[in-house]
């Protein structure tokens, strides 16, 4: 299991985690970031960089709802998109995706 970003990231797009990720597996939605479980190498470099402690290590037992949500960002078509994002091989080339999963959208901070 990969590292997981939970609800604390909603509305917090600081980007410190992205800057230290050696495999560029942290993608930006509209209001939250997502870790691609197929690209994450479980190195933990992102963990201490998150200013809101939204990243959870696999050994810390992340909430299954956020495990599923991070995976869904890549595995199912997001609102307004025809196909899943899949595994593009790094976030740098994709830029911001501009949309979140339905779960995150339902919890977006006003």
From TrEMBL:
Keywords: 3Fe-4S, 4Fe-4S, Electron transport, Iron, Iron-sulfur, Metal-binding, Transport. SUPFAM superfamilies: 4Fe-4S ferredoxins. It holds the Pfam family Fer4. Its cofactor is [4Fe-4S] cluster; [3Fe-4S] cluster. PROSITE patterns: 4FE4S_FER_1, 4FE4S_FER_2. Residues 87-98 have a biased composition (Gly residues). GO terms for molecular function: 3 iron, 4 sulfur cluster binding; 4 iron, 4 sulfur cluster binding; electron transfer activity; metal ion binding. InterPro entries: 4Fe4S_Fe-S-bd, 4Fe4S_Fe_S_CS, 7Fe_ferredoxin, RnfB_subfamily. Binds 1 [3Fe-4S] cluster. Residues 1-26, 31-60 form the 4Fe-4S ferredoxin-type domain. Residues 87-110 are annotated as: Disordered. Ferredoxins are iron-sulfur proteins that transfer electrons in a wide variety of metabolic reactions. PANTHER family: FERREDOXIN (PTHR42859:SF2), OXIDOREDUCTASE (PTHR42859). This is Ferredoxin. It comes from Actinomadura rubteroloni. The lineage of its organism: Bacteria, Bacillati, Actinomycetota, Actinomycetes, Streptosporangiales. The gene is fdxA.
